[in-house]
Design brief:
Elements lengths: L3 E10 L2 E11 L4 E5 L6 H9 L6 E6 L2 E2 L10 E5 L10 H11 L4 H14 L15 H13 L5 E5 L7 H18 L2 E6 L2 H7 L2 E6 L2 E6 L1 H6 L4 H8 L3
Parallel strand pairs: 3-8, 3-9, 6-7, 7-8
Antiparallel strand pairs: 1-2, 1-4, 4-5, 9-10
This protein binds adenosine-5'-diphosphate and magnesium ion.
């Protein structure tokens, strides 16, 4: 479970067309990276999948079911933001528990899921702390923990590491890849960082001005870029 299909997805804000038309298939359990320059529509595309934006036209299907008009909470997806979006006045435990509490889960179930997520993310010793008492990497793990407890069909990450320093980015990259192996869940990961795309992706979707330039494995894009844009983007060091 976790197959996502976009059919002729078009998005405009007023008269500004951001996504002219995109068709895309994401297989269950695939790690897909959307990569492209700033302003090319990566976040918009992710938000359309999450349901945080409405499509102007086209359809979004998850496991064959039309989700186009479905509210974000009813799509079975979890989104992780670059800004963490944690509640500063709540403990780590309560931050992770929050979505379950909102959904009315019972206390024992919440406790088991929170502790399980904390174990996976090495946060067990930090459950009583507030976000302000954590490092950037730990905060990002809390945000991921909050996504995990919902047991989503897919995780959507929007540049989750861009607020971290280079060394931490490297280790979090490995952690997220490891998480993907452990959870066996579809992940869509947005970045403008070629290294993240090349090292983490099963499949890379290269976007340019709201269009897909090329879709392929890191090796395919590296060896046979379809055009200069892809070659420049995948090939050029940053
Ligand atoms: P990226 O994440 O690749 O940097 P975005 O998806 O954030 O790009 O933005 C793509 C384009 O859509 C940009 O030109 C941006 O200004 C525009 N855009 C995004 N959100 C809105 C909005 N709510 N209203 C108007 N324009 C928007
Ligand atoms: Mg963005």
């Amino acid at each position: 479970m976790g197959e996502i299909r976009l059919e002729k997805v078009h998005k405009a804000f007023g008269s500004t067309v951001v996504i002219p038309e995109i068709d895309l298939e994401i297989a269950d359990n695939e790690f897909v990276v959307f990569v492209g320059p700033s302003g090319c529509g990566k976040s918009t595309l992710l938000r359309l999948i999450a349901g945080l934006e409405d499509t102007t036209s086209g359809r979004i299907l998850i496991d064959g079911e039309d989700m186009t008009a479905r509210a974000p909470a009813k799509r079975g997806l979890s989104m992780v933001f670059q800004s963490y979006a944690l509640y500063p006045h709540m403990s780590v435990y309560k931050n992770i528990a929050f979505p379950l509490k909102m959904a009315g889960a019972d206390t024992a179930v919440i406790d088991e899921k929170v502790r399980n997520a904390a174990r996976i993310l090495n946060l067990t010793d930090y459950l009583d702390r507030r976000p302000g008492q954590l490092s950037g990497g730990q905060r990002q793990r809390v945000a991921i923990g909050r996504a995990i407890v919902r047991e989503p069909k897919a995780f959507l990450f929007d540049e989750p590491l861009s607020n971290l320093d280079a060394a931490l980015r490297g280790s979090m990259r490995l952690e997220i890849s490891e998480l993907h192996h452990q959870l066996n869940t579809t992940m869509i990961y947005v970045t403008h960082d070629q290294v993240e795309a090349m090292t983490m992706a099963d499949k890379i979707v290269v976007l340019n001005a709201g269009r897909i330039e090329q879709v392929g494995s890191p090796l395919e894009l590296y060896r046979s870029p379809r055009n200069l844009f892809v070659a420049g983007f995948i090939g050029s060091p940053r």
